[in-house]
Amino acid sequence: MTSFTEQSVDPSLEDARKSLRSTAASEFPEIRKDELIEVDLRSLKKLGKNITPTQNETDVLEAYFPMSLEKFWEVYFSDNAKFSFQDFYTHQKQKNFKVSKWEPVKEESKEDASQKLKRSFNMTINISGVPFCSSSKCIRESTVTKSDEKIEYESSVSTPDVPYGNYFFLKERWVVGSTVPNGNQVYVRVFMHLDFVKSTFFKGKIESRAVKDYSDDAKLWEKLARKHIPKPKAIRKKAAPITKVEERRRRRKTAPMKKKTLVEEVVIMEEEDECET
User: Fold this and answer.
1) DSSP three-state, residue 126
2) What is the 3-state secondary structure (H, E, C) of 241-272?
3) Can you tell me the distance from the alpha carbon of 175 to that of 152, in angstroms, rounded to the nearest whole number?
């Protein structure tokens, strides 16, 4: 049986693998930052549905917005957002906001060109339907990972003043992306789950209430956010639908990281060669 070693692998396989992992930006080198590419909506929805919840997460929102990824960041997530989370919670009559600026996260090793940021977002929220508790501090620690293709926004939220509030953290994950950099449409996927650090008999009741409240908030956010969608810009050129090779690459990229053996890498390359032909 033939054994695979580093010396026995054709260097062209490694070159092809790097080429497959390159971003779609290389396909449109002449596109400037202020110009948009028309996205194939069917491919965008297929890509959006490939972003799936983890085992503990609940899928609370799937939406599509007619704007570029960078514009989505500017309008909704940035420090100077036109419709920020503070605006959203102000609409819900929450108060006492203390929001820090986004700042870079220092990482010892970095294998890609993504940018990671963090910030704190604290406020006082109104509580209803809970005896002897009408409000609570809400402490949210958030991180964002930005790349040309995707934005991942994650937060850990605690409400220490509610009953059993020190038993759990609410974890939220927003994934926003497009099929190409500067695409004129993006998908938005939102997931959440409760991370319990202490056991309680009321876990099921707490989870069902949290899922309902968060789902209602996500739907309300989408409704209000759509009122701030900017006027569309002229389209420079149309992006081709995602190929089978690209779909496989992106699915592997969003799947949980698992180190592959050299044999598995070669098999993947051979399968992708068959897809291209």
Assistant:
1) strand
2) CCCHHHHHHHHHHHCCCCCCCHHHHHHHHHHH
3) 5
